[in-house]
Design goal:
Number of domains: 2
Number of helices: 15
Strand order of the largest sheet: 1-2
Oligomer: single chain
Radius of gyration: 24 Å
Helix content: 40-55%
Order of helices and strands: EEHHHHHHHHHEEHHHHHH
Length: about 375
C-alpha cells in the first residue's frame, strides 16, 4: 500500500525549545505517629513519547525491510524516495547501523538528511533576505538539531554542529554587524551554497510525486470498495460512502493532484485536493497572524517564511504568487520603518551580517498592493 507522508504544512515559524522533564514536585503525608515524603516527577509529552519508542535494533530491522521494499526492480539507492522514512530510520541508514546498509544507501540517506536540513532553513532564509537578520536561521538550525533522536545526538558530529551554532550565536550577539566565523557552522554552509547558486536541495521529480499520489488515492479507493463503500471526494451524509483522507498527503502531493499536469486525476479528485490546499493555506495565514500577536511586521515575516519554504508547485496550487511575496515584503518594510521612526527598541529590522546576504534583496516587483488588500482579494 502506497502512502504519502505529511512532511509539509506551509507554516515555518521559529519554534521555542521546550524541556523534556518538568521540575520535580515534592509531596508529603504525615500522621501523629509516622511521616513520609515522596517525590513525583512529571514527564513531558516528548519524554513519554520517547519512552514508547522501539529500541534502535528494532528500528534498524524495520528500516532494512522498508528500504528493501523501495529497492525493488533494480532501483538504485540514489533514485529511491526516502521522504517516507522518519528521521530515526534515516539516521540508521546514514550511520550504517549494525552494518545492515551499504555505502550507496548511506550516501542516499545523507543526501536526504541534507535536503531536510535545507528545507528547515528555507523559510527563515527567505525572511533573512528581507530583514538582513540571520539570527532566525540559527534559531531554526538549532531547533532542527534538537529534533534529532537520542542515537543521533550521541554522535560527535551532532555535538560539534550544535556547539558551532551556539558559538555563532554568541558572536552575533557580541558583534551584530559581523558575520560569524565558526568552523562547522551549518548555517554558514547553507547560506554560502545558496548565495553561490549551488543549492544542493533537489526536489523530487514532480511526475513521480504525482504517480505516488495516484497510487495512494487508488489504495484508498480499493480499501473503500473492500468495505463495500465508495470513496467520496465531497461532503456527504451517505453511509455507503467513505470520505477521502488527505491528512497523510504532504502539500506537494496535494499540489500534484490539484494541478493535474499529466492528467492522472479526475475532476472530483482535483476539486477535493484544491479544497484541502485552500484549508491548509488558510490555517497557515491564521497561524501566522496569531503568532504575530497583532504585529504587522511579524505577520509579514511569518508569511515570507512560509512562502520561502514552499516549492513552486505548492505556491501555484495555493495561489501564493509573487504579488503576495511583494505585498508581504512591502508590509514588513513599512512596519519596520514606522517602528524605527518612533524609536521602538523592539523593532524587528536589523542590519547585522550584511555581507553574508549581499546581493539578495527583496522582490523587484513595484506593486503597491498592501498585504491586507492582497489577502482580501485572493479569492476574487
Amino acid at each position: 500500500m502506497t502512502t504519502i507522508s505529511a512532511t509539509s504544512s506551509y507554516s515555518t515559524y521559529y519554534p521555542t525549545p521546550s524541556s523534556t522533564l518538568s521540575s520535580p514536585t515534592s509531596t508529603s503525608n504525615a500522621s501523629s505517629s509516622t511521616s513520609s515524603a515522596a517525590t513525583t516527577v512529571t514527564l513531558s509529552d516528548a519524554a513519554l513519547a520517547a519512552m514508547n519508542q522501539p529500541d534502535f535494533s528494532t528500528v534498524v530491522a524495520q528500516t532494512r525491510t522498508a528500504l528493501d521494499a523501495l529497492l525493488v526492480n533494480g532501483t538504485k539507492p540514489a533514485d529511491v524516495d526516502l521522504s517516507k522514512l522518519d528521521r530515526r530510520q534515516l539516521f540508521a541508514i546514514a550511520s550504517i547501523a549494525q552494518g545492515r546498509f551499504t555505502a550507496d544507501e548511506q550516501a542516499a540517506a545523507r543526501s536526504e538528511q541534507q535536503n531536510r536540513l535545507d528545507a528547515a532553513l528555507a523559510g527563515p532564509f527567505a525572511v533573512a533576505r528581507v530583514t538582513d537578520d540571520i539570527e532566525g536561521l540559527y534559531t531554526a538550525a538549532l531547533a532542527w538539531l534538537d529534533g534529532a533522536s537520542t542515537e543521533e545526538k550521541a554522535t560527535p558530529a551532532w555535538t560539534t554542529q550544535r556547539a558551532a551554532l551556539l558559538e555563532a550565536q554568541k558572536q552575533l550577539a557580541a558583534a551584530p554587524s559581523k558575520t560569524p566565523q565558526v568552523a562547522g557552522d551549518i548555517v554558514a554552509d547553507y547560506v554560502q551554497r545558496v548565495t553561490a547558486g549551488d543549492d544542493s536541495t533537489t526536489l523530487r521529480d514532480f511526475d513521480a510525486v504525482a504517480s505516488d499520489a495516484r497510487a495512494a488515492l487508488d489504495a484508498q479507493i480499493a480499501a473503500a470498495r473492500a468495505a463495500g463503500k465508495a470513496l467520496s471526494f465531497g461532503p456527504t451524509s451517505d453511509k455507503s460512502t467513505q470520505p477521502v483522507d488527505f491528512s497523510q498527503f504532504d502539500s506537494r502531493s496535494l499540489a500534484a493532484i490539484a494541478l493535474n499536469q499529466d492528467g492522472k486525476f479526475s475532476t472530483q479528485e482535483i476539486s477535493a485536493a484544491r479544497q484541502a490546499i485552500a484549508q491548509r493555506s488558510s490555517k497557515t495565514i491564521l497561524a501566522g497572524l496569531n503568532n504575530a500577536a497583532s504585529d504587522p511586521a511579524t505577520f509579514a515575516r511569518n508569511l515570507i517564511s512560509a512562502y520561502g519554504s514552499m516549492s513552486p508547485e505548492e505556491r501555484q496550487a495555493a495561489g501564493w504568487s509573487d504579488r503576495l511575496y511583494s505585498a508581504a515584503v512591502a508590509t514588513y518594510n513599512t512596519a519596520a520603518n514606522i517602528a524605527n521612526i518612533f524609536g521602538d527598541a523592539t523593532a524587528s529590522s536589523s542590519t547585522g551580517a550584511l555581507s553574508i546576504l549581499d546581493g539578495l534583496g527583496a522582490s523587484t516587483d513595484d506593486s503597491s498592493m498592501s498585504l491586507a488588500s492582497y489577502l482580501n482579494s485572493a479569492d476574487a
